Amino acid sequence: xxxxxxxxxxxxxxxxxxxRTLHDFTVKTIDGEDFSLSELKGRKVLVVNxxxxxxxxxxxxxLQSLYEKYKDRNFVIIGFPANNFxxxxxxxxxxxxxxxxxxxxxxxxxxxxxxxxxxDIAPLYKWLTQKSENGKIDGEVTWxxxxxxxxxxxxxxxSVPPKTVPLSEEIVSWIxxx
Length: 178
Hints:
Elements: H1 2-19, E1 26-28, E2 34-36, E3 44-50, H2 59-70, E4 75-81, H3 93-104, H4 123-129, H5 131-134, E5 147-150, E6 156-160, H6 169-176
């Protein structure tokens, strides 16, 4: 009887967690302003954790190219600087913004530096990486430049490994709906 009671009490909580979407989160921009991800309803979103001192840092160039090519076709990239891997993002938000702008001409939205794994994982990344939270995928962040593809309804579609370049056929096909 206790098991049935627990199931009845916990089941709605589990459904609620799985019914959350990207659009339910508010994050901070790299300039410290609130950004409600509900503003992205109707767009495909590529969420990526970035770092300035990583062997994969040159992916910023392809991320920017991808953004420029598809930004007018209901697509956006959101970059989240993180220092979780090899201390490869040690800078402040101001330093990160200057680095991205000066070296790669980044114009896609960049957010404040966060943690993408571990005990201090940001709520958005907890949702992105745990099927129990998002109802669709498990996708542990394994390194800098892990990419998450989110559909127009704010539902995660898949996690793409860090070494897969932004202009890969896999990502471009998804954006174009092929």
